[in-house]
Structure formats: structure tokens, C-alpha cells
Amino acid sequence: MPDRAETIEQIVRAFHRIGHALYPAATLEWVDLELTMAQVKALFVLSQSGPMSVSELGQKLRVQPPAASHTADALVRLGMVERYEDREDRRRTLLRLSDEAEALVDRLRQGRREWVHRWLGELTDDELAELLRALRPLEAVVTDSHTQPAA
After folding, report:
1. Distance between terminal CA atoms of the chain?
2. Domains of the chain, each with CATH number or no CATH
3. Structural contact between residues 53 and 94, judged by C-beta atoms closer than 8 angstroms
4. What is the pLDDT, as a whole number, of residue 146?
5. N or C: which end of the chain has fewer CB within 10 A?
6. Beta-carbon contacts of residue 97 (< 8 Å; ≥ 6 apart)
7. Percent of the chain having pLDDT more than 70?
8. In 32-145, which residue ranges form alpha helices assigned H by DSSP?
């Protein structure tokens, strides 16, 4: 029986192979995007974290405020991001995804989901139950905010 470190390494490799197999699912639509990588990252940050200021977006993207502002401006011009006044602080402007951008992000995520659904559909009921049981502890660790990787 492999030791703990080897078992962890085997699991990491399995996740890597699964992630690598998902790459073609996303590539087709990603190649056609006429957005910079910074813009795509900003869309995903806004999708996951919700409305935020330009400075908060810069912090999440780990870029300086001028770069975040430039990215936000470009996305506003493209109709992907909307600016609006913060109801709690009228001096503050927030960014949110437009409906078009929300749909784009959903499409980009959906391709991978469909492949995973297809693969899971090939497992037996017992294998599905075992996989779910095995993933629950990892899911609990991942969702514990105290164990998130450093930003």
C-alpha cells in the first residue's frame, strides 16, 4: 500500500489528468474570444465575487489600480461590464457584469460541465455513490475559508 505522500501525489496526478482532459472542452469557445486575458480574468472575478469597485477588482486580479481601471474601461466599452452608483456610498462606483457577459461566462463554464456530466454518466450507480462519498471530505476542506490558498 502506498504511503500517504504517494497517495496524495496519485490523487494530484488524477486531478491533473481530468483537468487536462477538460481543456479541449473550453478551447473551442475561448479561441474565438476577442478579449484580452486580463479582460477574461476580470469577467470571471466579477462573476464569482459579484459587484465591486475598480480598486477591489485590481486587488482580486493582483494588478495596480491603473491597470484595473484600463481593463474595466475596455469592458464597459465592449458592453460586458456596467458601472453604477453604490447605494450606500454615492461617491463610490461599482462594476457588475452585463447580461451578455453573464451569458458568456456561463457558456465558458458550461462546456466543461457537459463533459463532466457525460463522463459521470458512464459510471455505475455504485461508482457514483463511492465517488461522491470520497469527494465530500475534500469539498469540506475546500469550502472552509480558513484553508483557502493565499490570495
Report:
1. 36
2. 35-143 (1.10.10.10)
3. yes
4. 61
5. N
6. 43, 46, 47, 80, 81, 82, 105
7. 90
8. 37-49, 54-61, 65-77, 99-121, 125-143
